[in-house]
């Protein structure tokens, strides 16, 4: 099983969006059983809160199913429990690495690293641009899935 944890600052916008977009992608490929996918925050600001209404609306608009998500914070133990810890921006990466005590096993990535143009995914909590965030998340998730296939990690 491939264990993937998507991370952002609060775990109410970008990381749950990536979680559900990626879950939908792998399900449509018939590969859902090969994955355990979740999301978490690098901060404590939104712990216990549901998905942001803008993310929820975007997922509904795109026909992507989602669950009764509540924000949780990354734990140090998550580093050993996941194969991939995927952040949305350079600040997430810095915080993930600090919180888990380094990245000796090279498990920490920025989502758009898989696309060949490693830019940050803007936080729609600040920008209000949920469509732009969705497009970036979808591009990153497609590229991550392609990476897993091309590297023989997913058959």
Q: Strand percentage, roughly?
A: 5-15%
Query: In this structure, how is the largest beta sheet organized?
Result: 4 strands, parallel
- Give the neighbour order of strands across the main sheet: 2-1-3-4
Distance between the termini: 12 Å
- The shape is globular
- Per CATH, the superfamily is Response regulator
Order of helix and strand elements from N to C terminus:
EHEHHEHEHH
Low-confidence stretches: none
Number of helical segments with 4 or more residues: 6
> How many strand elements?
4
Structural class: alpha/beta
Helix content: 40-55%
User: Cα-atom Rg, whole angstroms?
Assistant: 14 Å
Q: Quote the CATH topology.
A: Rossmann fold
Give the overall average pLDDT. 97
> In the CATH hierarchy, what is the architecture at level 2?
3-Layer(aba) Sandwich
In the CATH scheme, the class would be Alpha Beta
Total discrete domains: 1
